[in-house]
Design goal:
heterodimer, A: Ferritin, 8 helices, calcium (chain A), virion (chain A), metal ion binding (chain A), Mn_catalase_dom (chain A)
Chain lengths: 189, 89
């Protein structure tokens, strides 16, 4: 089971109301390489991956939910004081018409999250290579997001998340080596 | 309402201390998942876990429960459902 902890993994502060950035950040909330996709991808792959890497998928998958909450906090703080006019001005009129100030699992273009974003091949190497690619794509997205804001408080939290992608990618690469070593051992008679 | 902890300068300081300890523990957890035989990392993990337990205990005594389903205690009245939630601070 899971136990919720009433704190963020890392502080999230924003220095201004900025619905424009909130719209872009939605990519990491409900986009293909976003935190929701990441959490669901890893936690779903656990059941059929070799025992030696189940722990890693469980722990990274769980950390992704902490990142999802950080992104949600950013979006919430950046939009909570925005007027309908401000939301319309940055292209969030359709979002407001459907959701008011509520968050929604969609990408920056407003396309709802879909399970088609995640794969489960049942082949441990295929699954882990997908996970590595997902981390690298998320890292790139965080860089583009950092580049688009001058809010140093927001940048600080985004840089933390960018670094986590790098660590996750590294751990998944190590998991690939563990799987390969295990496979090779089994071939020796 | 009266039992609600005050969100002051000290709240952010103590919260950040806990976040720092927890960050090291998340890092060590993932590292140990792929390096289970690293004794030094394991010792550091267990030492920090103990430190984290103390830090969280003091934080909760002052600002209320961090976990529920029985993993944290509560004063009267039930503190868990009280604000603020993490995105509100």
């Amino acid at each position: 089971m899971w136990v919720y902890e009433k704190k963020l993994q890392y502080p999230v502060r924003v220095s201004k109301c900025d619905p424009r950035m909130a719209k872009f950040l939605t990519e990491q909330y409900g986009g293909a390489d976003g935190e929701l996709s990441a959490a669901l991808r890893y936690l779903n792959q656990r059941y059929t991956i070799p025992d030696k890497v189940i722990g890693l998928l469980t722990d990274i998958g769980t950390e992704e939910f902490a990142h999802l909450e950080m992104i949600a906090t950013m979006i919430y703080k950046l939009t909570k004081d925005a007027t309908p006019e401000q939301l319309i001005a940055v292209g969030l009129g359709p979002h407001y018409a459907n959701h008011d100030h509520a968050l929604y699992y969609e990408n920056a273009g407003g396309v709802p999250w879909t399970a088609a974003y995640i794969q489960a091949k049942g082949d441990p190497l295929a699954d882990l290579y997908e996970d590595i690619a997902a981390e690298e794509k998320a890292r790139a997205t965080y860089q583009w997001l950092i580049d688009m804001t001058d809010d140093v408080d927001l940048q600080d939290s985004l840089k933390f998340l960018r670094e986590r992608e790098i660590v996750h990618s590294l751990r998944f690469k190590e998991a690939v080596e563990i799987i390969k070593a295990d496979r090779d051992t089994k071939k020796v008679f | 309402m009266s039992s609600r902890a005050q969100i002051d300068e000290n709240y952010y300081k103590k919260l950040e201390e806990l976040q720092q300890l927890d960050f090291a523990l998340v890092e060590l957890t993932l590292y140990l998942d792929t390096h289970p035989n690293d004794m030094q990392a394991l010792q550091q993990f267990n030492q920090l876990a103990q430190q984290r337990h103390q830090c969280a205990f003091h934080f909760e005594a002052q600002y209320g429960p961090l976990l529920q389903y029985g993993h944290s205690y509560s004063k009267y009245p039930w503190q868990w459902a009280e604000s603020p939630w993490p995105w509100q601070v």
